[in-house]
Design a protein that fits this description.
The chain is an alpha+beta fold and about 140 residues long. It is built from three helices and ten strands. Strands 3, 4, 5, 6, 7 and 10 form a six-stranded mixed sheet that branches. A two-stranded antiparallel sheet has the order 1-2. The longest helix is centred in the first third of the chain and has 11 residues.
Amino acid sequence: MYSYETPTRSTTTISYPLLFQDAGVYSKVWYASTSERKIAEEALVKSNKDGSFLVRKSSGQDVKQPYTLVVFYKKRVYNIPVRYIESSRQYALGREKSGEEHFSSVVDMIENHQRQPLVLIDSQNNTKDSTKLKYPVKV
């Protein structure tokens, strides 16, 4: 929970889900607020375009992993956790690793990977690929 002062000088307490509006995702075409994993994956497979993507709420509803970036590339769907780093109030992709990029919002993260390739790791085949986020998919 966080508290902030309103213009009328009263104190208001907000919960984490409301705090995540700061991530900037709610107005974006690529944000699928009510999409379940299966529906998100089906939408990307149907698009059949390398670099198709969307962001959905994570299944676990965990404060530390509020969203999942879903990417389609080479006939595969990648579900990449979006982590919220409470100490710095920033976001990062995947498991914590040294030298990882941190972003002030999920929108900044998406915009960055629309310009710079995102590394995709296939843990089943132990292979790496990369693609830019090119085609936002609306569910």
